[in-house]
Amino acid sequence: MDYHAFDKLSYGLYIVSSEAGGKAAGCIVNTLGQVTVSPVQVAVTINKENQTTRTILESGKFSATVLAESASMELIGRFGFQCSRDVDKFAGFAWARDINGVPYVTEQCAARFACTVVNEVDLGTHILFVARVDDWAVLDDVPQMTYDYYHAVKKGLTPPKASSYRPPEEKVTGWRCTVCGYIYEGEALPANYKCPICGQGAEVFEKITG
């Protein structure tokens, strides 16, 4: 079977964020979608190991923003390839709170949704959250980023915990970032090298042996 068939499905890129016990968390997903109109409900699937998942399970609420096509790799790298347990993902970016008190990024985004979870489905590695949309707004009248644009134009990678992640098919000589999967091609990795996707240092890279 050809897994490239799944590449024909259309996705966007979204930041899903939540807060519980005074601790905020957020991650990038490509699985957000509207499922009903009356009431307005959305569904999103997030890996069980994500801190964002644990935070949503505790708070029962989340905010979702639609990334603009012009969103920077710095923003994507922060929310897509770093952990909320280790990093304040909102630091340095403009943000606000929705009507449920949940923080959300206000820059480089096209729209936002304030959501309350009404159902959860265990999918094994992931949890599917179904949520009522309590409030929504357009943040900027700009094109939203599609998953295809992210890969084709931004040359972005898929985080290993993402629902659509697949290991690279081609074999190359070089070093792989163990955080985001970025591959540095070459025999020697500079000691002060920083991953251009997730910003991690050379110490998290592993040699590709074949």
From TrEMBL:
Keyword Oxidoreductase set for record: yes
Keyword Oxidoreductase tagged: yes
Gene3D superfamilies assigned to the protein according to its UniProt record, in alphabetical order: 2.20.28.10, Electron Transport, Fmn-binding Protein, Chain A
Cofactor(s) annotated in UniProt: Fe(3+)
Domain Rubredoxin-like: 172-208
Keywords: Oxidoreductase
SUPFAM superfamilies listed in its UniProt record: FMN-binding split barrel (SSF50475), Rubredoxin-like (SSF57802)
Superkingdom field: Bacteria
One MF annotation (Gene Ontology) recorded for this entry: iron ion binding
This protein's name: Flavin reductase
Record organism: Ruthenibacterium lactatiformans
Lineage start: Bacteria, Bacillati, Bacillota, Clostridia, Eubacteriales
